[in-house]
Every structure is written in structure tokens, then in C-alpha cells.
Amino acid sequence: MLNTIKILMPSIIIATVLILSIWSAYKLLLAKVLWKKCLALIPFLLLYIIVYGFTFGFWQLNIKEVTYESPDIPEAFDGYKIVQVTDVHSGGSFWGPYKGLVKSGVEKINALQPDLICMVGDMQNFLPSELEELKEEMSSLKAKDGVLSVMGNHDYCSYSGFSPARQAKEIERTRNTHRSFGWKILVNEHFYLHRGSDSILVVGEENWGLKPFPQNGDIKKALEGVTINPATKTANTFSLCLSHDPNAWKHHIMPVFVPNITLAGHTHGAQFSLFGWCPIQYVYDEWGGEFYAPMKNKNSEALLSVSTGFGGNLPFRFGMPREVVVITLKKVK
User: Which of 305, 266, 275, 271 is nearest to 289 (CA)?
Assistant: First the structure.
């Protein structure tokens, strides 16, 4: 029953808006005042936004390329290619006629021949079973150094009304689902990627966001065993951090540790933009794109890359296409 509703939902929404738009436009056109007649254009604009957003707007997938330059990049990692994927929301976006978009997206990602793929949270919408339905596609992601993942707020089944015991079981099921794809899930932990004698530090923490979002992220725990310079709050090697919510960067991570690159998502760019205006900008300072902060005593800047997402809560996008971000490391003197 639920799957049937999901499949029919875009059609129901479009049909409802169509009926309301035609009725509203008809009423306005009957008005005797000219300015009221002109308002008849508004229902038709709304209809256009809805129909386009559920079709062409959601079908698009942009490959966004970013180059990060720094003298801190080890020689062996010069030219290293990191692919950032966030907010798949498998149960919200990719069902019925939309499921094929995952396969084509995976093919585009693999064609980039990445060194590392980072799945930065909200892989499911409500339940791990939604993500399990995409096992074939998600297991097909390939990178030289593998696929990493972290948890986002939707990955804790927080919106399903489960008891604490049932929720704990579903969270563990989510983590095991990631592992079954061949991904390395980072749960407030770190490891080092090695190439020859060079290495980079990779840190992954659980979701941390401003309330009411989960604050399970523990950056201090994730850094246990890592030497942090107290003056600069940096590690002794180039560092990459995965943390789903961009608010964690300023409020939670950087007071303790300043990574060279932090990857986040969460905002979706509201899945809507009109002539460059996006409503999410009033909620988040860093809601989509690249943001920089100086690194003390270093000829470099810390980068926060916030992806506007691969999927969404609904298969709808208007003026805010789905995206995959490719970050290429470039060593400079």
C-alpha cells in the first residue's frame, strides 16, 4: 500500500495543483478589475513549477568540479580525486519510475574514476529497508580507495516513531547495510589513507546539528590518538573530515580541530531556487557550495564543501538540480 502511494504521489500532487490552478485562474479571470485578472498568471506559474519539478527538474544530475589547492597536500596525493555524494534519501526519492536515476547516477560517478567516494549522510529517508532496495546500485560504486560513509539525521530512524529499543536495532541495521555494500562506515573514528610513504588523515563523525537535530557526533572521540597542534588546532598531516550537517563545521568541529577539507550536505538547497533566490539561505549560513576559513600559521584555507544533494525528501527539484561534487587536490608550493 505504501509503495503504491509513493508511486502515485507525484501524479496526485500534479492533478490536485492542476485542478486548483484551473479553478483559481477561472475565478480570477471572471473578476471585473484588471489587476485581479492579471493574478490569474500565478496559478499557472505554480502549476509549471510543480510539473517541472517532479519531472525534468528532478531528472537532472550535475557533476560539480572543485579544485582545492594547498601546500599541505602530500606529493603522492597531488591530483587525488574525491567524489562527494550526500542526501540520497532512497525512500523519499528513488522509487517507481525514479529508481533508474540511481543507476545512471552511479554510472556517472564511476565514469569519473574517483580515488575516493564519500557518502555524507542521509542515505535513507526513514528506514534501512529503503536503502536495502538499492543494494545492486550502491554496491556498484567503485573507487581506488573505496567508499566511505557517515550517518545523517535521517539515518537514525528518528522520524519513524519507534521505541528506543526498536530504533537501536534499526540503526545497527542501517550501519550493517552500509557495510554490506562494501562501504567503510565511520562512527566517530578516523584512519589514515596511505600512498607510498605519504598519508592523509580521514575523520568521520556521526550526525551533529543544532537542536532539534541529533547531536551524536563526537569529534574528540573521532580524533583519539591523533596529535593536534594546540596553537593551530590542525593535525600534523593533510586532513579530510566527513560530517553531515554543515552547522557542525563552525559550532562543533573547528573549536576542536581544523580539517583541511570538511564534507557536508543536509540542506538540499531547499530543492528549490527561483532567479537565484533560495529560502534555505535564511536558515543556514553555509547551505550549498564552498566556504573557506583561514588556517592559523598556514599558507592555506580550510574548505567546507556543502553539497545540495543527490536525492531529496520528494522526487522534486526546481532551480536546484541534484548534484555530485568532485574535489580534486592540487599541491602548490
Answer: 305
Cell of 83: 567524489
pLDDT digits (tens, 9 = 90+) for 138-155: 999 999 999 999 999 999
Can you tell me the distance from the alpha carbon of 208 to that of 214, in angstroms, rounded to the nearest whole number?
A: 6
CB 253, CB 262: distance < 8 Å: yes
What is the C-alpha radius of gyration for the chain, rounded to an integer number of angstroms? 22
Q: Which long-range contacts (CB under 8 A, 24 or more apart) does 163-168 make?
A: none
Give the relative orientation of helices 41-54 and 2-29 as an angle to the nearest 10 degrees: 160
In angstroms, the CA 45 to CA 25 distance is: 11
> And the C-alpha cell for 248?
557542525
Count of CB atoms situated within 10 Å of the CB of 225? 6
3-state secondary structure of 250: helix
Residue identified by cell 552500509 is 178
Which of 169, 147, 145 is CA-nearest to residue 156? Answer: 169
pTM: 0.91
Q: How many CA atoms lie within 13 A of 132 on its CB side?
A: 10
